[in-house]
Design a protein that fits this description.
Chain B has 445 residues and is α/β, with parallel strands linked by helices. Chain B has 17 helices and 11 strands. Helix content of chain B is 40%, strand content 12%. Strand 11 (440-441) of chain B pairs antiparallel with strand 6 (135-136) of chain C, so a sheet runs across the interface.
């Protein structure tokens, strides 16, 4: 099924197809890895919205990449609850292991590292979302294995 | 999990094992209340909710039954009426709705269907925060199962995934987002009950609130109204205990236990021989609690008397290694990052506060700046379109007021007196990334 | 009255209709509530800027006046009397100024800036912010016509709401969130479309500014002359900003029945054609062997007289439809009374059939059913009408592109609109209106969208000058080409080939020099006094805003007329007085007014026979080609640098079904052919086009006519 067809299928769930813009952008991002100009234009075409409007909506939400991102994402919660129990050390381990700063992608285009706001896993700090799946109680010691896992899984 | 006999209602049956599939849920009496409710007049269900005095668990603590009673009946409006469940749990320190979706997804669905019957709605949207992937999968699977079992009747239920914006937990912003717009709040009135989703009457409830409904009907509203701290804070609460505490977790306990009991008895106290310095109480949106108030009961009225809020049930413990300037700064950065940008005081004020707090942390402020910060907070509180700016101003103002000596020490020390010993030292804030704003040259923040 | 409610504002009692906004209610009580984001023309208030914050008795939280409506017994305290509201309002201004640069001395908005004014009246005297302000790259051209200064932007969202909710182009949007929010277009695309310039007037600060006005004037150096736009038949009311005799800017001058304060970009930005490099400032005469050379006015009038006499009554006048009523009348009087020549080439057909169905344009917004007939986009012909139709749709009206007779008959308020060729000057749509019983039905009516701004007025004036009928002549002795549109018209040029001699009145060298024997300098509507008749039939007053580089048409026409014993005043008021006796019921020039009312046409006969409707066209092979005059075309637009990006691309528009049947994708290069001629164009799938019709801008159609075929 083409992206356009898939978007239009999802849009049918809603009384107004415009409501499907978040799922549509999500589908486009899953397909292209990020919301390139072409991806946004495709979403706009499918939902009969202008590309400017789609970009405007996408840019409001943290989960959408308006720039090219890595094949994998590592998101480290750095809000206070995780911070109180050393999320910064976890983030710094990832920075060291990957050789990139938060917001950056490894030179090989494989892994994007992000610091993110509270992920809602405060009882098992530090929460790290690896490709959008939560890992609980991550410590700096766990970091090399996580990176290794992603690199081997390519 | 809990350190004492659990009076679990919301999580009943899932104390040890998640209760994910339909058969298991039915085995603990699942969907029986839906059947019973559907046999009743819708008004009767609302009357029971009113009698139970169940109140909203999302933070505002508004009586659930009354809210439902505001929705006009179908003969009074030409448009359909909608139910929207707020599963956009993003308040720092809050992780209870996630537990509910993972452990008792069917109870949430049952609650939705009972509410749909009560207000005669045929459309339910569950707005789940975009980061919750596993939770979405579990809930979607439960929904598919319920649909296949014919439990939905003529109700259409859609799980709508957010995309990473804290503000979408605000009810009108959630509606904007669900309608396909930028998730910016709308001015109230009109209230969603009259003009909500697609300008139609809409009932918006938090996950915990909706999930409590089947249990309210099961135990009976009169019994439920006696649990906890009646008359206002009835029933149980999913407390979110985190931070510097030995046994963090979600604990379903009746309203009215003391903070000290929760932290020390249930949570095992502050570990590593440290002492408790403050509690982020109710969430990051409210004044922080100081140790002298630890005996305050966790119910709305007791907390209210001391200037606290029960919020979304957050109890995050800060031990004595926490620099309160860093804490206020990090929370401030969160609000700056999450401000939607629609109204002036919030958009500008949250950023200005961050600039001021950073200056304090660097020792580059003066005593009069504390009063300026408080004045800026005052010019935010009650002046914004929604409560996001107020939330920032409330917690920051409480830190400045209650920990003024520690703030002053930063000036005297010419920087953070904790050095690198603060537990929040070097904590990175995503607000620093601004990866979506290549055109901006950020200076000073 | 029962629908009035009593509201107390700052201890003043006022009665207003229930539901009136508090900003308006306060105004009724003589109290100003300052606003930034609130602009009623953009729809309901959004409560974003927080400037209009007030205290309302019984509500603990401060409320925004722009989102609150009056209810009976409501007690409102504005910042004048409420300490709480005052702190809030003062705070709002302080917050706005935290990032707003204090560059007023070099800001084009300075002196006419709402932020400046409101800060002066309500704001803090100094700043307590001592950190670095947010800085952005600036100014950014969001199009060649508009620049954006993001540092000055206060994010009131007026511009984005206009783009989304009024012009509905969805191009100007907010990007990012919170403090990092910025106004932008998609990627590097310019903000384009018929209405973009309105955002420069909506902007309450100096963030969105017209590039043409950059550093061109300060408020104390300028005057705003109230006049009427002469770029199309809508006749939007404008103020021409004038400095030292030159027009520097066009602003809207809200006529609530005509334009509601909106302008199209052609009306707003094309004024600079008056300063075109090839503007003709002296008469130009063909001199044997030496070609064309400037001559004095005395020589020019001698030559004109000679040519007129030499034609022996075989004179044809080609009108542009952009002449003022007075100019057309003066020309007619000279030629018809002075020379006994009665033949005119009118720019388009004019019918009085619609006079029985006249309505103000604003009635479109209130209609329940709007039927748009004809094949040319409304925005290309009469842009503001497109905004009225959009407003109607947002109000819940059914907007149809086929004549659904039942829908029209059943509606309490139905409006028919003809936009395109084949409408016989309005006779066709009038016939539909008559047949569907719209005559005399309140709120019902019909409009015809002419191609020229004053074709109707010019035709009426021409007709009023004499009762003689034209006599067909074999040969054309003299062709008088009146104005640039006529000079640009291929049919006129063809006639000029046949004429023994040609006098052309034109503003631009490029248009008339080379084929006319005598070229007299023309003027722009901005340089004239006089009247225009718009598509509603409304008589509106033009006021001279800029001094023309040469005497205007009335001046030399009166001199020339006197040589033929015809008395003709050189001033518009006198000419109008004479004409008004004949067709405007003796209305005095001075009474046309700055905000002209819609009045009946005094010269209209009691009943106009509406001609029978044409037979429906038989199905045919191929596609019917509609060539249209794009909004962004014509001699004036061609001379405005800032509008070049808006010129129509070389495209053929097709209905989706026709494109699919031919395997043509949007954007593909296609060949459009007819009778051996063919043109290569890009295909665009247009939603508003019916099946079997293709549309090409006239300038890209080449020699294509009638029925065409399109192939991939």
């Amino acid at each position: 099924m083409s992206l356009t067809d898939e978007i239009q299928r999802v849009a049918k769930r809603y009384p107004d197809p415009k409501s499907a813009i978040l799922p549509a952008l999500r589908l486009a991002q899953e397909q292209y890895g990020w919301l390139s100009r072409a991806a946004i234009e495709e979403v706009g075409e499918a939902l009969d919205l202008t590309p400017a409007y789609c970009m405007s909506v996408a840019s409001f939400y943290d989960l959408f990449n308006l720039e090219a991102a890595g094949r994998h994402t590592i998101e480290v919660c750095t809000n206070v609850c995780c911070g109180l129990v050393n999320a910064q050390a976890v983030l710094e381990s990832f920075e060291q292991e990957l050789g990139v700063a938060p917001g950056e992608t490894t030179a090989d285009g494989e892994i994007t590292l992000r610091a993110v706001e509270c992920l809602g896993g405060c009882s098992t700090p530090t929460i790290v979302a690896v490709d959008h799946r939560y890992r609980q109680s991550v410590t700096p010691e766990d970091v090399p294995a996580i990176v290794e896992e992603l690199r081997n899984g390519r | 999990m809990a350190a004492e006999a659990s009076p679990a209602l919301v999580l009943a049956g899932a104390e040890e094992q998640p209760l994910r599939d339909l058969a298991a849920y039915r085995a603990v009496g699942g969907y029986a209340q839906l059947e019973r409710a559907r046999a009743q007049e819708p008004q009767q269900v609302i009357a029971e909710l009113i009698e139970s005095n169940l109140r909203g668990r999302g933070g505002a603590f508004f009586p659930t039954g009354r809210k439902a009673s505001f929705i006009p009946t179908p003969d009074k409006v030409a448009k359909p009426v909608y139910i929207t469940v707020n599963a956009d749990e993003s308040e720092p320190g809050t992780f209870k709705d996630r537990e509910i979706m993972l452990r008792v997804p069917h109870r949430l669905i049952e609650g939705c269907l009972i509410a749909a019957h009560a207000i005669q709605s045929r459309f339910v949207f569950i707005y789940i925060r975009g980061e919750y992937s596993t939770e979405y999968d579990v809930l979607q699977a439960a929904l598919d199962e319920a649909r296949a079992a014919g439990l939905l009747g003529d109700v259409t239920m859609v799980i709508h995934r957010g995309a990473g914006a804290y503000i979408c937990g605000e009810e009108t912003a959630l509606l904007s987002s669900l309608e396909g717009e930028r998730g910016q709040p709308r001015s109230k009135p009109p209230f969603p009950a009259i003009e909500g989703l697609y300008a139609a009457p809409t009932l918006i409830n938090n996950v915990e609130t909706i999930t409590t409904i089947p249990k309210v009907l099961e135990v009976g509203p009169a019994v439920y109204a006696q649990i906890g701290a009646p008359p206002d804070s009835t029933g149980t609460r999913l407390f979110c205990l985190s931070g510097n505490v030995a046994r963090p977790g979600v604990y379903e306990l009746p309203h009215g236990i003391t903070t000290r009991h929760l932290v020390e008895e249930v949570g095992g106290g502050v570990p590593d021989g440290r002492s408790l310095k403050a509690v982020m109480m109710g969430g990051s949106s409210f004044p922080v609690m100081t140790p002298d108030d630890l005996d305050t009961k966790l119910d709305a009225n007791s907390l209210g008397q001391k200037g606290y809020f029960i919020g979304s049930g957050v109890v995050c413990v800060l031990d004595d290694r926490t620099c309160m300037v860093q804490f206020a700064l990090r929370v401030g950065q969160f609000y700056m990052h999450e401000s939607c940008g629609k109204c002036t005081p919030c958009r500008i004020g949250t950023r200005w506060l961050v600039q001021m707090l950073r200056a304090v942390e660097n020792g580059a402020a003066s005593e009069s700046d504390f009063d300026l910060a408080l004045d800026v907070c005052d010019r935010i509180i009650g002046k914004c379109l929604c409560v996001l700016g107020d939330s920032d101003a409330m917690i920051v103002a409480s830190c400045v007021t209650k920990f003024r000596d520690e703030f002053r020490a930063h000036l005297e020390h010419g920087g953070c007196p904790f050095g690198h010993d603060s537990s929040l030292d070097r904590l990175f804030a995503p607000a620093d990334q601004h990866h979506l704003a290549p055109v901006a040259h950020e200076a000073g923040v | 009255m029962s629908d009035l409610v009593r509201v107390t504002i700052d201890e003043r009692e006022v009665h207003v209709p229930k539901g009136t906004g508090i900003v308006e209610t306060a105004l009724a009580a003589g109290i100003e509530i300052p606003v930034f984001c609130y602009e009623p023309r953009l729809g309901e208030g959004i409560g974003a800027c927080r400037m209009c914050i007030v205290e309302i008795e019984g509500i603990p939280k401060l409320q925004t006046a722009c989102t609150t409506t009056a209810t009976d017994g409501m007690v409102v305290k504005t910042a004048r009397t409420s300490e709480k509201a005052s702190v809030g309002q003062n705070g709002t201004l302080e917050f706005i100024l935290v990032n707003h640069p204090l560059d007023c001395p070099v800001c084009d908005k300075g002196g006419e800036c709402p932020l400046q004014d409101l800060t002066f009246r309500y704001g803090p005297g100094n700043t307590r912010m001592n950190f670095e302000k947010l800085t952005f790259e600036k100014p950014i051209p969001i199009s060649p016509a508009i620049s954006l200064d993001r540092e000055r932007c206060i994010l009131c969202y007026r511009c984005t709401r206009f783009s989304e909710d009024v012009s509905e182009d969805g191009q100007l949007v907010a990007r990012n969130r919170g403090a990092m929010s910025v106004i932008t277009t998609f990627e590097d695309e310019p903000y384009s479309g018929p209405f973009t310039g309105n955002v420069t007037e909506l902007c309450p600060v100096g963030a969105l500014l017209p590039t043409q006005y950059r550093f061109e004037g300060r408020p104390w150096e300028i005057q705003n002359v109230p006049t009427v736009c002469g770029m199309c038949s809508v006749g939007c009311n404008v103020n021409a900003t004038v400095r030292e005799g030159k027009v520097k800017r066009i602003l809207s001058r809200n006529h609530p029945e005509i334009d509601e304060g909106w302008l199209c970009d052609k009306g707003r930005f094309a004024f600079s054609h008056t300063r075109a490099a090839d503007r003709i400032v002296d008469p130009i005469k063909r001199v044997r062997l030496r070609g064309f050379e400037p001559v004095s006015w005395d020589d020019a009038l001698d030559e004109a007289e000679r040519l007129l006499r030499a034609a022996h009554g075989r004179v044809v006048v080609a009108l542009s439809g952009s002449e003022t009523v007075e100019q057309a009348y003066a020309l007619a009087k000279l030629v018809r009374v002075g020379l006994g020549s009665h033949e005119a080439m009118l720019p388009e057909e004019v019918s009085h059939g619609l006079d029985a169905y006249g309505l103000p344009l604003s009635a479109i917004r209130d209609a329940q059913v709007v039927v748009v007939l004809g094949d040319v986009s409304v925005a290309e012909r009469a842009p503001i009408v497109d905004l009225w139709i959009k407003a109607a749709r947002r109000n819940g009206a059914r907007v149809l592109d086929e004549l659904d007779e039942k829908a029209v008959r059943d509606a309490d308020r139905a409006v028919l609109i003809w936009s395109g060729p084949g409408g016989r000057g309005g006779a066709t749509v009038a016939a539909h209106a008559e047949r569907l019983g719209l005559a005399g039905k309140p709120g019902c009516g019909a409009f015809y969208l002419p191609e020229t701004p004053n074709g109707r007025g010019a035709a009426d004036a021409w007709a009023a000058a004499s009762d003689e009928e034209p006599v067909e002549t074999e040969s054309v002795g003299l062709l008088i080409v009146s104005g640039d549109e006529a000079a640009n018209d291929p049919n006129v040029r063809a006639l000029a080939e046949r004429a023994e001699s040609v006098i052309a009145v034109s503003m631009f060298h490029g248009l008339a020099v080379g084929w006319a024997d005598l070229v007299l300098p023309g003027t722009s509507y901005l340089e004239r006094d006089g009247t225009y008749v718009n598509l509603e039939g409304r008589l509106q007053r033009l006021r001279r805003s800029a001094i023309p580089p040469a005497p205007d048409e009335l001046t030399w026409l009166s001199q020339l007329a006197s040589r033929f014993g015809v008395e003709l005043a050189p001033h518009a008021p006198s000419v109008f007085a004479e004409l008004s006796e004949r067709i405007y019921g003796g209305l005095a020039f001075g009474e046309v007014g700055e905000r002209a009312p819609l009045r009946g046409y005094a010269g209209a006969p009691e009943h106009v026979e509406t001609p029978p409707l044409p037979e429906p066209e038989a199905a045919r092979e191929g596609l019917r080609l509609v060539c249209y005059k794009p909004l962004f075309s014509g001699p004036a637009v061609e001379r405005v640098e800032e509008l070049q990006f808006q010129r129509p691309p070389a495209e053929v528009e097709l209905a989706r079904a026709d494109a699919q049947a031919r395997g043509i994708a949007n954007g593909a290069t296609v060949t459009v052919s007819h009778n051996g001629t063919s043109v290569q164009l890009h295909a665009r799938i247009a939603k508003d086009l019916r099946k079997g019709v293709v549309r090409i801008a006239r300038e890209h159609a080449g020699d294509l006519r009638g029925t065409v075929e399109v192939s991939a």
